[in-house]
Automatic annotation (TrEMBL), chain A:
<keyword id="KW-0813">Transport</keyword>
<keyword id="KW-0249">Electron transport</keyword>
<keyword id="KW-0999">Mitochondrion inner membrane</keyword>
<protein>
    <recommendedName>
        <fullName>NADH dehydrogenase [ubiquinone] 1 alpha subcomplex subunit 6</fullName>
    </recommendedName>
</protein>
<keyword id="KW-0496">Mitochondrion</keyword>
<keyword id="KW-0472">Membrane</keyword>
<dbReference type="InterPro" id="IPR016488">
    <property type="entry name" value="NADH_Ub_cplx-1_asu_su-6"/>
</dbReference>
<dbReference type="InterPro" id="IPR045299">
    <property type="entry name" value="Complex1_LYR_NDUFA6_LYRM6"/>
</dbReference>
<comment type="similarity">
    <text>Belongs to the complex I LYR family.</text>
</comment>
Automatic annotation (TrEMBL), chain B:
<dbReference type="InterPro" id="IPR006963">
    <property type="entry name" value="Mopterin_OxRdtase_4Fe-4S_dom"/>
</dbReference>
<keyword id="KW-0520">NAD</keyword>
<dbReference type="InterPro" id="IPR010228">
    <property type="entry name" value="NADH_UbQ_OxRdtase_Gsu"/>
</dbReference>
<dbReference type="InterPro" id="IPR001041">
    <property type="entry name" value="2Fe-2S_ferredoxin-type"/>
</dbReference>
<dbReference type="Pfam" id="PF09326">
    <property type="entry name" value="NADH_dhqG_C"/>
</dbReference>
<dbReference type="InterPro" id="IPR036010">
    <property type="entry name" value="2Fe-2S_ferredoxin-like_sf"/>
</dbReference>
<keyword id="KW-0408">Iron</keyword>
<dbReference type="InterPro" id="IPR006656">
    <property type="entry name" value="Mopterin_OxRdtase"/>
</dbReference>
<dbReference type="InterPro" id="IPR015405">
    <property type="entry name" value="NDUFS1-like_C"/>
</dbReference>
Length: 137, 660
């Protein structure tokens, strides 16, 4: 697994080009490419950051796809490009180990599980109930 | 001294206390009076016309410095380890009048500490013999336990024989002691007064609504002390109000629980509320019953009542007490004379009440009235009220005898301001309707209610009771025909009647302590204790008072009325209030006096119309013979907080050890 890291890094170096240059072309394909790119790095991330104690690979994959889906309402190609660019920055800092373990746990384990809980809630929840559940009253 | 403080001049003092007799033995309050050869003790000197008092002459200062030097001769220099440090009269005044060097080269005297029980700690070497505690015990608390023995340098304060103080008000000597000789045992060495955050709030350990100050450090209540309110508790509080706070740290419910396979398992709020919805939607409105506990606040009571009515249930109840009182006429369930009004009564008849355990501070007030010359008589089991009481009998036959014409009836009739106090010993009886009719007849016959004076008083034993009656949290007309409940909602109710909670019923418990209610429950919703919420309570004279949150709630607990509000939305019957202000305006809509905080609105007296209606409604019931006995068996342990408190358990133990 660890062997994949330098390869991934090389890829990232190649793909992390300025947003303006990648404006051309259909964005859907680019999003899919980027998602695959992220997915390929997940097994290495699991072992390198010792995340086995916290979560499983499939769980992590689900969480990442949830984070992707958080932006599924975005259609403007410019915005999509920016999002991919920002996502790649994140990916890079994971791959280069600029992020530490607790960053990953917070960002890719705890936050998505909270989002999922919110999604499970009824859509027409009142502001009162939302505050009640979040202990903000 | 009173004249000087009226003129805005503060005179230093140790032994003088406004509510105690004058001893004049500390000599700290010396002032110079013109034409008097020596300085005089201002506490004992009556102010006369044309008297010229000088309080800041060199002579006065010199005299006070001399007194201070003598006091400090035998006072240990242990301020750094003394619990009084930082709030000590002697410390403060020695900064003004103390010398910067001592001339005393001999040994300081030392005195053996006395054991006054588990609540009051003594370090008798620090005592300066002001005798405030002795005077408090004999004059206010009415127990002859403390006294002064020995003379001169050998004099000591103490119990004559080794024993705990047998008073429900013993904690007040801690506040009275101007030095660190009497301090709080549970508070000892736990905090310094300058690191505490104080919050003035209201006590709920009895129905009197004693004003208290909760001193907290961080998340923890460190101690509770009284706040002066002449209309309610003067400046005393009961030992339960003062020392039960350690119960707030134990056995708390801090997370919602849902019964899984036979055991309660932690759940999120959402899961718990959805589970509650599942249970509630399975039963019909009339098959649900709602029982409120002793510590329920007005906001959660009104929210729960509104929710119950929306669900089609009128089966509302307050646990253990007054099942037959109704809310139609407010003067029927309040202490109409008011607590401070009792001071003016000249004949008092207690029926089925033992105020010494039901409201000790109120008992001290009745005692004060007695000392002022009032005649006090009682009908009920013989108890020691700390002052002589004429016992007229134990049960309803004694009432009948009074009604037939007895010296007591004559006495009540002749009195200017007679007061009849009916207590839980009558209200909790199954035959209370019959006894209350007798009482009503007595009230009519003896002219207890007259122009400018209403002497009919009802004394309650639980903080939630009056607010529940004000709101109408009681069985509806339809409730009598309701089937056995299949779902019971307990709002902090732990002393419920087992008959009200059938074995097959689904139980939802909302409250702050894991006790009988939570043990029986299928769903537990953690609420807030009285030190953790801003809530409204009404005391037994009808005074609306509000608690203030002194510490945050524990764990994932929520405010009580907000839990009910959230549940109502999950049930798709949302209640129309989202904020505390909104629910309070709803309270004020139901009963206007909820908007008038800290005042008593004197209720209407319908010239006995109510008594007639009561008689018609109750019909013919016959009174049973057993004596009226108080609802409070053990003063120290009456509700969930005091039952979980170790201080209260120790106090119970110490009290039981005292031979009667």
């Amino acid at each position: 697994m660890v062997r994949t890291a330098p390869q991934a890094l090389a890829q990232i170096g190649r793909l992390a080009t300025p947003a303006a240059e990648t404006l051309a072309g259909p964005v859907e394909a680019k999003v899919k490419d980027f998602y695959r790119e992220v997915s390929r790095l997940l097994p290495w991330t699991m072992s390198n950051y010792n995340l086995d104690e916290i979560t499983t690979l499939s769980e992590l994959r689900k969480n990442v796809s949830l984070l992707f889906r958080q932006n599924d309402h975005v259609t403007d190609p410019k915005v999509v490009n920016i999002l991919i660019y920002k996502g790649r920055e994140e990916l890079e800092s994971v791959a280069l180990q600029h992020k530490q373990r607790h960053h990953l746990i917070g960002q890719f384990v705890i936050a998505p599980s909270k989002m999922r809980a919110e999604l499970h809630r009824k859509r027409d929840i009142s502001p009162f109930l939302l505050k009640f559940f979040n202990n903000q009253l | 001294m009173a004249a000087c403080s009226a003129a805005g001049i503060d005179i230093p003092r140790f032994c003088y206390h406004q509510r105690l007799s004058i001893a004049g033995n500390c000599r700290m309050c010396l002032v110079e009076v013109e034409k008097s050869p020596k300085p005089v003790a201002s506490c004992a000197m009556p102010a006369g016309p044309g008297m010229n008092i000088k309080t800041d002459t060199p002579l006065v200062k010199k005299a006070r410095e001399g007194v201070m030097e003598f006091l400090l001769i035998n006072h240990p220099l242990d301020c750094p380890i003394c619990d009084q440090g930082g709030e000590c009269d002697l410390q403060d005044q020695s900064m003004h009048f103390g010398s910067d060097r001592g001339r005393f080269t001999e040994m300081k005297r030392s005195v053996q500490d006395k054991n006054l029980g588990p609540l009051v700690k003594t370090v008798m070497t620090r005592c300066i013999h002001c005798t405030r505690c002795v005077r408090f015990a004999t004059e206010v608390a009415g127990v002859q336990d403390l006294g002064m023995t020995g003379r001169g340098n050998a004099s000591e304060i103490g119990t004559y024989v080794e024993k705990a103080m047998a008073s429900e008000l013993s904690g007040n000597v801690i506040d009275l002691c101007p030095v660190g000789a009497l301090t709080s045992k549970p508070y000892a060495f736990t905090a310094r007064n300058w690191e505490l955050k104080s919050t003035e709030t209201v006590d709920v350990s009895d129905a009197m609504g004693q004003n208290i100050r909760v001193d907290a450090r961080g998340l923890e209540v460190m101690r509770i002390v009284p706040v002066q309110n002449d209309a309610v508790n003067e400046e005393w509080i009961s030992d339960k109000a003062r020392f039960q706070y350690d119960g707030l740290k134990r056995q708390r419910l801090n997370v919602p629980l849902v019964k899984g396979s036979n055991v309660l398992e932690p759940a999120t709020w959402e899961e718990a509320l959805v589970a509650a919805k599942g249970a509630i939607s399975k039963v019909k409105g009339n098959e649900m019953s709602f029982i409120a506990g002793k510590l329920a606040d007005a906001e959660s009571l009104i929210a729960l009542k509104d929710l119950a009515n929306r669900l089609g249930s009128g089966n509302l109840k307050v646990e253990a007490g007054a099942p037959l009182l109704d809310a139609d006429v407010r003067s029927n369930y309040l202490a109409n004379s008011t607590i401070s009004g009792i001071d003016r009564a000249d004949v008092i008849l207690l029926i089925g009440t033992n105020p010494r355990v039901e409201a000790p501070v109120f008992n001290a007030r009745i005692r004060k009235t007695f000392l002022d010359g009032a005649h006090v008589a009682m009908v009920g089991e013989e108890v020691d009220l700390t002052f002589p009481v004429e016992n007229l009998g134990a049960g309803s036959d004694a009432l009948a005898k009074i009604l037939k014409g007895s010296p007591m009836l004559k006495r009540l009739k002749e009195a200017q301001r007679p007061a009849v106090i009916v207590g839980p010993g009558v209200l909790n009886r199954p035959d209370s309707a019959a006894v209350l009719q007798q009482v009503h007849e007595l009230v009519e016959k003896a002219d207890v209610v007259k122009d400018g004076w209403n002497g009919y008083n009802v004394l309650h034993d639980a903080a939630a009771r009056v607010a529940a009656l004000d709101i109408g949290f009681m069985p509806s007309a339809r409730a009598a025909s309701a089937p056995a409940p299949k779902l019971v909602y307990l709002l902090g109710s732990d002393d419920f009647d087992p008959a009200d909670v059938p074995a097959d019923a689904f139980v939802i418990y909302q409250g702050h302590h894991g006790d009988k209610g939570a043990a029986r429950a299928d769903i537990v919703l953690p609420g807030a204790a009285y030190t953790e919420k801003n809530a409204t309570f009404v005391n037994f004279e009808g005074r609306t008072q509000r608690t203030k949150a002194a510490v945050p709630r524990v764990g994932d607990a929520r405010n009580d009325w907000e839990i009910v509000r959230a549940l109502s939305e999950i049930l798709e019957k949302p209640l129309p209030y989202d904020t505390t202000d909104q629910i309070r305006s709803r309270l004020a809509d139901v009963a206007p006096h909820f908007a008038e905080v800290d005042t008593v609105q004197s209720p209407m007296w319908l010239n006995g119309e109510y008594f007639k209606a009561f008689k018609d409604r109750a019909g013919k019931v016959s009174a049973q013979a057993q004596p009226f006995s108080s609802s409070v068996a053990n003063f120290f342990q009456t509700d969930v907080i005091s039952r979980t408190s170790i201080n209260m358990a120790k106090a119970t133990h110490a009290r039981n050890a005292i031979p009667h």
